Amino acid sequence: MPQFSKDTLLGLAWALALVASLSVLFIGEIQGQTPCVLCWFQRAFMFPLAIVLGLGLWWQDQNVGRYGIVLALGGAIVALWHMGLYAGLIPEKIQPCSASGPSCTDANQTVLGIPIPLMALVSFALIGVLCALSLKEKQV
């Protein structure tokens, strides 16, 4: 199995956070798709991930992964809730989205047929795993 340096793992986590952040900005600002309430909460975790991990790499802080884990875990919890709403596992009456705004569960919540909440959940999970691996004493 290949061994990766802490910088490589953190660089991959940062790149994923940066791509995710730029993607949601593209969806919202260029495509004009207004984010729902849960999307905003997920952005509140993803945007700082791109900044914190990027600064950690710039300053060569080998322990920045612990902050990445915390932010990724918070975002993953929101994304999991969002995915539960999207999949219909959570009752509609407790959805945080208003009737007048964008819905958490409508067809606009997909990109290339993949639900946005699922993409967010996978992104947060991968970032969290990469950050956790960067903190291991012996690299995998």
UniProtKB/TrEMBL annotation:
BP GO terms, sorted: protein folding
Subcellular location: Membrane
Tree of life domain: Bacteria
Membrane-protein topology: Multi-pass membrane protein
GO MF, one example: protein-disulfide reductase activity
CC per GO annotation: membrane
Entry keywords, A to Z: Chaperone, Disulfide bond, Electron transport, Membrane, Oxidoreductase, Redox-active center, Transmembrane, Transmembrane helix, Transport
Regions crossing the membrane: 42-60, 67-90, 110-135
InterPro entries on file: DiS_bond_form_DsbB/BdbC (IPR003752), Disulphide_bond_form_BdbC (IPR012187), DsbB-like_sf (IPR023380)
UniProt record similarity statement: Belongs to the DsbB family. BdbC subfamily.
Protein name per Swiss-Prot or TrEMBL: Thiol-disulfide oxidoreductase C
Record gene name: bdbC
